Amino acid sequence: MRTFVAVVKEGSFTSAAKRRDMSTALVSKYVGQLEDQLGVRLLNRTTRSLTLTEIGAVYFERCQQLLDDFDELEATVQDRDAAPRGTLIVSAPVTFGEMYLTDAMAQFLAQHQEVRIDFRLTDRLVNLVEEGVDVAIRIAELADSSLIARRLAPARIVVCASPEYLKRHGAPQRPDDLLEHCCIVDTNFRSGSLWQFNEDGGHKTINVDGRFTVNNAESVRRMLLADVGIALIPTFAVGPDIREGRLKILLEEYEGSNLGVYAVYAHSRHLAAKVRAFVDFSVKSFGSSPEWDRY
Asked: Domain residue spans in the chain?
């Protein structure tokens, strides 16, 4: 099968022989044996040309897929026993990467001495294939795609404000009350200023307004601590502040859908040992009850 595929790709027995490092006579013999075994002619041969028959074209396509699957299976088995090594390119959101992933990566590097990490912090949605990224950490409600995703932890989204802001302006009791407040908008959320809530068994959207808009959760956190307003923010960004009483959760009974922290990679077939090791490590590091929700 490998010889037959080489003949088709190279366009001649002679070129296929060079590629396969065997004699032209042996290449011809192998293709002939394959045709005898199948009981069909795969190639039309003349002194000047070599073309696939109709059934040969179908067989060639399936042949390529089978050989690719076999090669990937073999490589995967071999790679599972190999130690993680090489450069691992990881992309992550800025705030989450700074607050949690950097420390986790230090532990990962300590365990895997032959791995280097190229850590890219960005709130932009990177294209893994085009940008050569091995793993992207995403905080989202993931849409269906060709990418493979492993859930690392929950990412609860809450409405927060400082005690001082609430002392001055009062606390909203229902989602509609937010219309009377100064709200801080994080544009990293796809909904932007359209905040989603659950109310009376259904979904409710409030179009909030405020004087500060930004695309970074840490900046939102700092504005909250500066008593500027009310914000929708992930608990991973404000968990310690909630625990220490610097911020308070509001409208808890109306919380909308929460997100997840995911490790996303391009495909699971022939997954490099360094990628598998990092994803498995990340799953163990965070889990269903991450430290940012322990308050």
From this structure: 2-80, 86-155+259-293, 157-254
